[in-house]
Specification:
Distance between the termini: 52 Å
Low-confidence stretches: none
Strand order of the largest sheet: 1-2
Helix content: 55-70%
Strand content: under 5%
Shape: elongated
Mean pLDDT: 85
Number of domains: 1
């Protein structure tokens, strides 16, 4: 049996909480905006609420996930839009939710493209959230950098 250290369990717990909070924000934000990305209503379906549901809401989901999880949150921020959109499409596909008059279920190719757009917006939010938390972007925070500045000039190095 694999034993995990307390730090690993804490990190795992933070990841689960971040993922659940991101999914909750995405789900309730979808309900609040009222734009159902999974449905096709013709050209009039692509309005401001649809754009906010695909680009703005996932951005804030990514920021939230990165703020809760911390370092590495940008990688975890990919999953909440995928989970919420997949569940929503499944509900419409199997008639758990009724499709309104004048709308039809979007073809899987279009839906997949819209999901990729939402995931990328969430990833960008995850990067911004990580930058806000660390104050820098990259692999190492500033206080963990091995050498700030070399004492010797590069011209002093001997071959």
């Amino acid at each position: 049996m694999i034993k995990f250290s307390r730090l690993d369990r804490t990190h795992f717990f933070k990841g689960v909480v971040a993922l659940l909070m991101g999914c909750a924000l995405n789900y309730f934000g979808d309900d609040l905006l009222g734009a159902q990305v999974e449905l096709y209503r013709g050209i009039q379906g692509f309005g401001m609420s649809w754009a906010a549901d695909v680009f703005v809401l996932p951005f804030f989901v990514g920021v939230l996930v990165a703020a809760i999880f911390g370092f590495g949150g940008k990688w975890l921020s990919y999953f909440p839009p995928l989970i919420v959109r997949s569940i929503s499409y499944y509900e419409f596909l199997h008639h758990m939710n009724s499709i309104p008059e004048g709308a039809s279920l979007a073809p899987i190719g279009w839906w997949g493209f819209f999901v990729i757009l939402a995931i990328e917006a969430s990833a960008f939010g995850g990067i911004m959230g990580e930058i806000m938390m660390k104050g820098t972007y990259g692999r190492s925070p500033r206080h963990k950098i091995y050498k700030e500045k070399s004492q010797n000039d590069e011209g002093d190095l001997e071959a």
